[in-house]
Amino acid sequence: MFQIFKIRSKYLLIIVLSILAISNIFAEEKNNMPVRYRGFTVKRLDIDILKNAVNNWNANQVRYMMCPIWETSNRARGQYQATWRSMIEKLPEGLENAKALGIATVIDLHQIPNDNPKQYSNDKHTASHEYWYDESNLKVMIECWREIAEICKGRDQVIWFDLLNEPLDWTTVHTSLAFPPTFPEWAQKTIDAIRKIDRIHPIAIEPGPGMLCWGFKGFPVLNDKYQPVIYSVHMYQPVQYTHQGVNSKEILPWPGVFRDSGGGYWNKERLEKELAPAIDYQKKNGVRIYVGEFSAPRFAPDAEIYLRECLEIFEKLEWDWNYHALNEASVWDLEKNEEVDLYNAEGKYVKTALAISNTELFYATRATAPINPPKLTTGLTERGKVIKQYLSLNSSKSKNNNNPQSDTGKNLLPGTGISAENGWSVYIHKTALDAGGQIKLDAGKAVAELPSYENLNNGNFQIIKSISVEANKSYKLKFNAIAGKAGEITAAYLLSKAPYTKYSTAIIPVAAGENAYECILDVSAIDGNYDVPRSLRLLLGAFKDTTMTIQDISFSEMTISTTKKATGAPIKKMLVLGDSITQHGPKESLGWTGQWGMAASSESKDYVHLLYSKISASQKIKPELILNGVGGGTIDKTIASLPAIIAHAADFVIIQLGENDRVLTEDGFEKPYERLIASVKQANSSARVYCCGTWKSVPQKDEIIKSACQRQGAVFVDIKDVYADPSASAASEKRYTNSGVNWHPGDKGMQGYANVLWKAMQEQPVMPESQKVETKITVLENTGTIFEDDFENGNVKNWQPDSFVFETGITKKALAITAPDAKGNTIKVSLPAASLCGRTVKISAMIKAENVSDKPKPHNGIKFMLSVTDAEGRKDYPQAAIVTGTFDWKKVTFTYTVHEMTVVATLVCGLDSVSGKVLFDDVKIEDITK
């Protein structure tokens, strides 16, 4: 099945396909095109309400708000579950009603029916925060969805699961992460519970907060192995307008000045700007967006204008939508008149009439009973006309999608000529054909004339050939094209094996004129064992008011790549660690104003974003891009931010460092570089790591980086051929005057970086095996003692200096620490955290004490301890229990299993808040992992 997004370019509609592996017996999309859903929210799935939606309004979807609190008498607490039981019992009948009418259903858990929540604060904001830390709410939420899933599993009709309506924590609404902090975890747990029962009906998530869309910022992409997650937004901004007469008394026209979101003038452009978090989320993650609710009061001045502008935005973005609501509260009712009770400033009723601003009249205060209730109109209201106009975009056939096999192929008609050389066929969708579109084949070449028509969602051109492919391989498509204008087209494998359909796609930029093109379509990334014929499809299209002719599209042979590709899952998180070549902020003294790779003419021309574009075009979704580039960046500086780096758990990592490192010793460069590779791979065991050689650097650095890659299982990317070309340097482009900026790669050099990285990704998609096999912590393997081995010329190598001396011990020398007062005295030895991660270690030492004073607290005294910190900043302090006073040499031992995500490990020896003297000898850290 297809999920199609329109991306406005100057010339073409880019048709992007994403995997929607949903059973063909009730697919939402028919005839290789998606069904766009437009409809209403409803309070019940009664047959009369659904008939009204379908027959009178032409809706093809309803969102059923399951809210037992509304249905409970007096909304009495402690009775919600009883009401829920009644609603669950009626659900099968309601779904049968929807199926009979051929209308899709969204089941919305409008509120969690928890009869026994914890006692929350009397403060509304605090209570809303406490709600999300009450596990009983999560338990009830999951149980509700288990019951719904049991009812829906196996149903051959379109059903979406909207997990929870308008999640809201008032304490986070105005923070950078506006969604309730625990909601992503709750949603993921609920998804996992549903998928144990029902794996075929899509799940929708509302990031919130509440009726706003700010929660899309920073909201994680949730994991559903069976269906793409749909993300839902509600549109009630500005709330001061959409809830006039509900929350406030003022009569306000549209467009106008409102207090919402910092205040100011609101119009259609401002509405779209406020939806930016959801729009950006869709572009970044390639997800489907669904407007679960939007509305305006029936009496609000200019409500029809507000609704029309909302719908123009939704249609432009190709979002599904439901108007709130049909046959529910009168305030939103499209079928009732627009007159309303009006009052003066003193709260005295004046008249029932149309609400007009600036008349010194007001709406009633909240909860005031209407004096003249609204009446049903004989014809459509102006609001109703707007909604019905856009509902008319639903074709009569698109509603009956519960049995799509019944008319498969009826709207996808052959063009002039059905076959050509090498088995190619062409098809033109009926809507495009009716609009005057033409496509024909001539000696294996296709000529397509793309018409101008209102909605390309209802028609396109396809050039198709049945082919045979093998699993776990990649294929190269080559073709020639003569294009009247520049644009992009989509090539796709359609891999079908009932009842599932999956895709591998590539977006191919097409330049004006005659050119040759090629792309790689990867089958290895698609799960499943397909042993039936597939089809290769080239899709063409144009958006409104553009007529495009693309001529002579011919296809060369389909060749199998000789390199087996096992790229695994698409890249989700792309992390780039680098110096100024990766990213440099503005610096006036250098004449540099960018916030991207230094010396590139724009962000889109630096190597990171060039490579990111290639990756995004080669897979279904755009990965999250995380940049950690710092001017003057070094290995040590990057290591300092290791906890934050590890926390990303990226699955694709580029390391571009070394240009600014000056100390090329084993401890100063080689080991830290290895530690960086090892750490990002420990954070994500499937991470692909590519390490760039250095720009205009000494060969010794590149050899060290290459060796580190070999030992840690990363790919070394040599860029010497890039900087060998003088024109790759920014100095040759004469764009900047500062010699420091000009030292960097220019646009050509940045393109060179991107090209060699891309080539490395194609040639080595799988990480090489690490050549370093550690069965023990070899750096601490006992061949003497830690303290003796690290003692040299009267100094302790690589230790943080403190007041200590070496004295004669059991063998040669021992570490002696003296504290003249109760302030104590300790030393700290940095340990190799990367080697310790996930290992169980035994830590031992011979210890002798002289006159050590009593412990003021149990954890004070003689310290023989580990201090460990993980990637999330959590700390642990495992240590040996040692008495104070005076005692002769004795062996002290403790064991500890180091967490897999540990990033800092330190051995602490000495005296803590006590006075006296303690000696340490023969200190060992042994790997005893079974």
Polypeptide structure, described:
With about 950 residues, the protein is an alpha/beta fold. The chain folds into four domains: about 35-250 and about 270-330, TIM Barrel (Alpha-Beta Barrel), CATH 3.20.20; about 405-560, Jelly Rolls, CATH 2.60.120; about 575-765, SGNH hydrolase (Rossmann fold); about 780-925, Galactose-binding domain-like (Jelly Rolls, Sandwich). It is built from 23 helices and 40 strands. The protein has an eight-stranded parallel barrel with strand order 1-2-3-4-5-6-9-10, surrounded by six helices. Strands 13-14-17-22-19-20 form a six-stranded antiparallel sheet. Strands 15, 16, 18, 21, 23 and 24 form a six-stranded antiparallel sheet that branches. β15 and β16 form a beta hairpin. It is globular. The relative contact order is 0.07.
